[in-house]
Amino acid sequence: MVCEGCGECETMCCDEDVLTTQQTEVTYRRPQKASEIQTPDWNYWSTGFDGWNSAIGGGLVRPSTVLVHGPKGSGKSRYLSSIAVNVAIQMRGKALYGSAEMPKEMVRKYLDQEGFTKAQLEALYILDDESCEGFLEAIRILRPVVVVWDSVQCFTVDGEVGELSLRHVVKEAKKATKKHNLISLLVSQVTKENEFLGPSEFGHGVDCIVEVSRDDDFFYVNVPEKNRFAKTPGSGKVEL
Question: Which residue from 28, 149, 181, 208 puts its CA 20 to 30 A from 63's CA?
Fold first, then answer.
């Protein structure tokens, strides 16, 4: 076979268009004077509890990812379900509570014990499924303004739990926060030292880390060192 391009036989000649390399122009951001950069004007949404508002700088910011950890039985789930509903009602939106540990009937029982009103119950949706994939799909369909992941260590990825799954869950929670403009409240289990359970970088990508505890009289809320929306440390308490 004779090549029409070079006139030789039995040669392999590539089309000229194939040999042409497309050059991609890379654009880099330029540094800007600090005086020319506009400071963000965050809107703080009240949690409904003065102690929480005091600790986190006035309220919750949308979008943001907040990691909450404290001893078992301290009241994390109790307060975060109330906070999620309070904020959602202010925004005239929905709150989604993802319970990877308790069935929805048990969560509802706690809500009744807390005296949730009809309006609060109407604003709150509960999904008792430990599947991370399932919870993300619920977020996509329901389009809530506030979500609670309780607890992040119990959500599965492809049916599995463990450190790799936890990394994936936290990563996906942060992505969903930005994509859907959410306030995401991540409830974390703790170690014997009352630190959040997981790799050290777990807390690096979140916007705020809240430590909670309680005694017979008060529920304590502390933000010792990380809050992108307010100065630290911050603290507050709620009378029981």
Answer: 28
